[in-house]
Amino acid sequence: MSSFPGSPSPSERYQAAAQRAAEAKTYLGTFAGSLNFELDDFQREACKSLQEGRGVLVAAPTGAGKTIVGEFAIFLALQRGLKAFYTTPIKALSNQKYSELAEKYGAANVGLLTGDTTINGEAPVVVMTTEVLRNMLYADSETLSDLGFVVMDEVHYLADRFRGAVWEEVIIHLPSEVQVASLSATVSNAEEFGAWLDTVRGDTDVIVSEHRPVPLWQHVMVGREIVDLFAGDTTFDEIAPVAPGAQETDAPDLSEAGEVSSEPSNGRRVSSKQASATKVRQAVTGPEFEVNPDLLAMARSESRMNMNGRFGHGGRSRRRQDRNRDERQQSEQRSPVRKASRPQVIESLRRQDLLPAITFIFSRAGCDGAVAQCAASGLWLTTEREQQIIAQRVDEASHEIPADDLDVLGFWGWRDGLVRGFAAHHAGMLPTFKEVVEKLFADGLVKAVFATETLALGVNMPARCVVLEKLEKFNGEAHVNITAGEYTQLTGRAGRRGIDVEGHAVVLWQPGTDPAAVAGLASRRTYPLNSSFRPTYNMSINLIAQFGRVRAREILESSFAQFQADRSVVGLARQVRGREESLAGYANSMSCHLGDFTEYAKLRRELSDAENHAARDHQRARKSRVADSLARLIPGDVISVYSGRLAGHAVVLDVDPNAREPRPSVLTQDNQLRRIGVHDLDGPVSPVTRIRIPKSFNAKVPKSRRDLASSMRHAISEDAPQRHRNSRHEDFGLGARLPDQEKKIADLRRALRAHPCHGCSEREDHARWSERWWKLRKETDGLVRQIQGRTNTIAKTFDRVCEVLSVYGYLETNDAGDVTISADGQRLRRIYGEKDLLISQSIRQGAINDLDAAELASFASTLVYQAKREDRGLRPKMPTVSLETAVDVVVREWSRLEDTEEQHRLPLTGEPELGLMWPMYKWAKGRHLQEVLSGTDLAAGDFVRWAKQVVDLLDQLAKIPQLDPRLARICREAIDLVRRGVVAYSTVA
Fold first, then answer.
1. In 3-state terms, the chain is what percent helix, strand and coil (to 5)?
2. Mean pLDDT of the chain
């Protein structure tokens, strides 16, 4: 599509007028006329595709207005007398979208279905989480009748490794006549995803827009001063895909650039805007934008200051001290900049007229701490009139919350912060509190929100400015830098369409900040959409029930995961061909005139392998002896650890006989609770003395730990045990095997010396080429295995899942060889969740048969709760004998299932978590929230979230057709016990 300077010609004006007149008579014209703004080109193009009966994938930046396409799909459904489902990844976004649509189309026409909320589920427009729609499809729900459109908001969530597979299940299983509108953040492989949608859903247009309707400016806050990141006037749309600081390996592959076309191809249309956006992404050269030289100078100055501080004085002694303090120095780097406090940052933003602002802090405690700091500093961001409105709305929203629960919920501090104009927003907050914050912020009454990254998932909370405190986060295992895609997602909140002329992204200067690296994050759009799909037990048995095993296997091979795997094989095969050519060259370079150097190189490798094998045997024997010594320990044993992080004495508190590897819980001499495993010890341990652990001992009470540690030290001083010899010098029972290994090694050395090539003057040069050849050979063989492994990968996993289901009797094969579903298998069809088979097995083995309603709620928590890694400790004493028996059953079944999954090379089902059992039992018994949370590290919002998941699981169990009616009744009673107070209360409805 060409553009010409000057005004359009008369013929062009006539043609445009004719198009507008024709469009005004269509559904799109009516819809566009109802809006108080003009549709953007990408919105109009996507809506036209839907109107013409095609599906669409719309990929655009946050805030670009792609939800308009979803709303047009709803409008079409209503006009044509059909139903429309609007799916979202999280309940908060479902609640928000329900409120918006109910206000627009009337509460009678809009419903809401989430795991724990059902409102008007048979309405013509229903908002739901994606899991609810998946469950409907497998249950063949009558609600699916007359379904015409499904809007899949935040469809890029299918990359999520925990829940992403649900999106693919829905896309694959929706009836062919249903049109799908997929709304995504800007992804770098939208073409690939669109090609898959075209394969499984039919005609699908891919509409991509990189344009932000509100320009986004990038800044760094140095002290209290806000400094531009780039030297020139550079906005989001103008930044090159590969900027200074970006790695060259992130540049696109130009070999595939020619495949992109704006012309129709194979029944798919690609918009002109998408074609131009693709060209921008695939350009390797282009205008380079200079990082602000003042920031680069600041970084150099800081680097010199730290280098001088470390190496300017003291020689070896100073360097040795530095090595011992590496971690502390990393967190306490010196900087010429005095970092602004959080209240000072907000004040600076207010002076620059950059409020309202969202500050992303990758820590719940940090968000709450920021609110407390702002309140303590005397910060007020609201007028008297705004304070009155906020106070009134907060009190109205919270009037149903029991007064006894307000203190434990932190209500008064939360209310005070809101009245002042700032608040936190994170998953640990009560859902009601988060909803209030979202509404007050959207209305411009709250001016500053301190949030974790969960806010960026789709909740509609645009701001004028977004602040990132740090560019690293804790991912559950380690502190890692955020990716370019995450940076784009977070900063995309800046700039409110129709309100702000421009948006602003601000990164706070921290010691060690690299401006070039920040520029690299801000300039790249590398956010590939990679499938996380894999067959689960529930998915597999539902597919077999509906289509039979053969057809189910074929359906799974149509997944996006297999689509990507098949495409990647082409590139791998190209790499194999290139490496085979290199191998031929290496073989020529390592040839020797004295003999067969390939044979000589093989002897060298065999010798190296034999030496390594002997070393590994010694290590395995050591590990086995250590594990055996740990397995012999019993509570009360005092052991001595001679090195490592647990060096010193420790008393054994608890052992888990069901653990695959012994890891007893111990109390160290400095009062710390730890688990000790094989890798913590140099050799076997044995008790140096024993002490009695009081029955009243509670590991969570500091005084109990101190008293027990004192008893341990007293027992050690009385027994005065002698230090055992260092176990690292033991042979660990290998004495009988060493002669054979030594003989083999000696024989190989003799053969090596006797080989003709051993005397070659260029032997080591040949050997270097041989090593290169061998390394490349292994890599090439690995690529060949990858090609073999990626062929039919999903189907192979499905086969292994079916084998496990057959082992447990969920699948049966009749005399004709047909696979059928057993009665137990029919039950599994209605159980959805990560522990689906374990839940089904627990019911099958009678774990819940003797439980009352409160006990059942407590037991259900073990199958949904996921404790933080550091919170996993000793097995608590169960509230009742019946629960003790039920937990024994589920732990035994989990251990058996884990062994079976290992044998069949499947991902392991997570261990039942017991940490929520007591709080859930107390709650189901009617205790106050403060009493329920007392003695735990649970935040109120976390408890409510887990309680709602317990309700969701109990609701699934109650609806299983084959379940004993008595158990179904107890499930419903348990739901009523849990769904009360803050768990039941929501501002939605």
1. 50, 10, 35
2. 80
Structure tokens at 328: 């502390």
Q: Which residues in 26-113 belong to E strands, given as ranges?
A: 55-59, 83-88, 110-113
Confidence (pTM): 0.69
Task: Pick the closest to residue 933 from 977, 974, 982, 971 (CA basis).
Answer: 982
Collapsed DSSP state (helix, strand, coil) of residue 731:
coil
Per the listing, tokens 């094998």 go with 613
pLDDT at residue 239, as a whole number = 54
Distance CA 621, CA 823 (A): 47
| Nearest CA among 919, 911, 924, 821 for reference residue 869 | 911
How far is 804 from 807, CA to CA, in rounded Å?
A: 5
> Which of 818, 780, 801, 919 has the alpha carbon at shortest distance from 860?
919
Tokens of 322: 């530095």
pLDDT tens by residue, 470-528: 888 776 667 788 887 788 878 888 887 778 888 899 999 888 788 888 888 877 655 77
pLDDT tens-digit profile of 731-773?
444 444 556 667 777 777 777 677 777 767 767 777 777 777 7
What is the per-residue pLDDT for 109? 92
Q: Write out 812-842 in H/E/C secondary structure.
A: EECCCCCEEECHHHHHHCCCCCCCHHHHHHH
The tokens of 378 are what? 């005397």
User: Measured between alpha carbons, how far apart are the two ends of the chain, in Å?
Assistant: 48
At residue 4, the pLDDT reads 38
Q: Which amino acid is at 413?
A: G
Specify the DSSP class assigned to residue 226: E
Query: What's the pLDDT band for 86 if we cut at 50, 70, 90?
Result: very high
Dihedral (CA of 566, 567, 570, 575) sign: negative
| pLDDT on residue 325 | 45
How far is CA 526 from each of CA 218, 242, 494, 632, 690, rounded to the nearest angstrom?
18, 10, 19, 53, 59
Place of tokens 């509108």: 181
CB contact at 8 A, 526 and 210: no
Give the confidence band of 329 by pLDDT, cuts at 50, 70, 90: very low
Cβ(730)–Cβ(681) under 8 Å?
no
pLDDT tens, 851-903? 999 999 999 999 999 887 545 556 778 899 999 999 999 999 999 999 999 99
E-state strands within 739-832: 811-813, 819-821
Q: What torsion do the CA atoms of 924, 926, 931, 934 make, to the nearest 10 degrees?
A: 0
Q: How confident is the model at residue 336 (pLDDT cuts 50, 70, 90)?
A: low
Cα–Cα distance list, 711 to 233, 650, 668, 690, 695 (Å): 69, 11, 12, 10, 14
Between 365 and 23, name the one with better pLDDT. Answer: 365
Quote the crossing angle between the two packed helices 293-311 and 315-324, to the nearest 10°: 110
Q: Are 495 and 503 in contact (CB under 8 A)?
A: yes
pLDDT tens track for 420-436: 999 999 888 888 888 88
Q: How far does Cα 483 stand from its chain's mean position?
A: 13
Of the candidates 717, 227, 788, which has an alpha carbon nearest to the alpha carbon of residue 509? 227
Neighbour tally for 359: CB within 10 Å: 25
Phi-psi region of 541 (alpha: psi -120 to 50; beta: other; left: phi over 0): alpha
Exposed, middle or buried, 321 (CB in 10 Å: 0-12/13-18/19+)? exposed
931 Cβ neighbours under 8 A, 6+ residues apart: 922
CA distance 492 to 257: 27
